[in-house]
Design a protein that fits this description.
- Keywords: ATP-binding, Cell inner membrane, Cell membrane, Lipoprotein, Membrane, Nucleotide-binding, Transport.
- The protein has 288 residues and is of the alpha/beta class.
- The protein has one domain: 3-Layer(aba) Sandwich (Rossmann fold), CATH 3.40.50.
- The protein has eight helices and ten strands.
- The protein has helices at 55-63, 102-112, 117-130, 146-159, 176-193, 204-210, 248-262, 270-287, and strands at residues 13-22, 29-39, 44-48, 70-75, 78-79, 87-90, 164-168, 196-200, 213-217, 224-229.
- The strands form two sheets. It has a six-stranded mixed sheet with strand order 6-7-8-3-9-10, sandwiched between helices.
- The N and C termini lie far apart (39 Å).
- It binds adenosine-5'-triphosphate and magnesium ion (MG).
- Residues 22-23, 29, 31, 49, 51-57, 220, 267, 269, 272 line the site of adenosine-5'-triphosphate (ATP).
- Residues 55-56, 168 line the site of magnesium ion (MG).
């Protein structure tokens, strides 16, 4: 696999007193307020928070899709003021183009960079092999399962070797087994290329398994409530003989996250309230 974002390369993200307001006029809504964080180059940070607290909005600001209404977001000291391939986004649902074969979808970012067909196909095939999709390069997205589509989506994001990988509940729709496989795969690719990763999840176990650090957000309008170091050595084991999730330190940190999430009210707008409660309660139950 090529390594165009080797360890030690840049990717430091900062947010200083960031507020994000969505919509205009009487519909305007402050989704996050006074968010401050520094994420070092190559760090893997997970964001946890109740439904509606502004996690996706925060990622959208880092992607450059939403402008800050106060404060500023920077990458390596440069203000983020629009989308750029140096910041790759992976959503919960794939964004593969239905009319392109998997190989061409994965290679698409390289095409945009002006890289010739032969070379971009060579790189895309190598990465597809890596995510277990070598035999499916010529299929269209609709001919892949959900887990396969998501693997192709991640391969697509990784191939452009972004300095920052923004992931919004990327494994949320996957079954437990595929999810565990994808987490391991993501950690493999991350340890090789060391992009800075900002990963949003509702799943405390997932955050504790993946992250160097977990930022827990308050309910809407969201702000950073707590910044937790995840001290477990890597690679983190999750097997039959030894399983990180049964270690006392893991359980203690999980309890801390649960307590922080439990003591928060759900996002206030009435229309959101019912679904937010259901979702939040479900995520807390599955984590306990
Ligand atoms: N276009 C918009 N105009 C006004 N408010 C919006 C708009 N889009 C989202 N919001 C509000 O912003 C808040 C934050 O939304 P966001 O999607 O960032 O939350 P989230 O933390 O990602 O939630 P979830 O965990 O459910 O995905 C929500 O209360 C939502 O209702
Ligand atoms: Mg969201």
């Amino acid at each position: 696999m090529t390594s165009r974002n080797p360890q030690g390369s840049a990717g430091r993200v900062t947010l200083e007193h960031v507020a994000l307001t969505l919509g205009d006029g009487p519909q305007a809504f402050t989704a996050v307020r006074d968010v401050n964080m520094t994420i070092e180059a190559g760090e893997f940070v997970c964001i946890l928070g109740p439904s509606g607290c502004g996690k996706s909005t925060l990622l959208a600001a880092l992607a450059g899709h939403v402008a800050t209404s106060a404060g500023q977001a920077t990458l390596d000291g440069k203000r983020i003021d629009g989308p750029h391939p140096e910041r790759g986004m992976v959503f919960q649902q794939h964004t593969l183009l239905p009319w392109r074969k998997t190989l061409d979808n994965v290679a698409f970012g390289l095409k945009m960079q002006g890289i010739g067909k032969r070379e971009r196909h060579r790189q895309a095939r190598a990465l597809l092999e890596r995510v277990g999709l070598g035999a499916f390069a010529d299929r269209y997205p609709a001919q892949l399962s959900g887990g396969m589509q998501q693997r192709a989506e991640i391969a697509r994001a990784m191939l452009i070797a972004p300095r920052v990988l923004l992931m919004d509940e990327p494994f949320g729709a996957l079954d437990a087994q595929t999810r565990a496989m994808m987490q391991a795969l993501l950690l493999d690719v991350w340890s090789e290329r060391k992009p800075t990763v900002v990963f949003v999840t509702h799943d405390i176990d997932e955050a504790l398994f993946l992250a160097d650090r977990i930022l827990v957000m308050s309910a809407s309008p969201g702000t950073v409530l707590e910044d937790l170091q995840v001290p477990f050595a890597r690679p983190r084991e999750r097997g039959e003989t030894r399983d990180l999730v049964t270690e006392p330190e893991f359980i203690a940190l999980k309890r801390r996250c649960l307590a922080l999430l439990r003591h928060q009210p759900i996002a206030s707008p009435a229309a959101d309230h019912a679904t937010a409660s259901v979702r939040f309660n479900r995520s807390v139950q599955t984590a306990s």
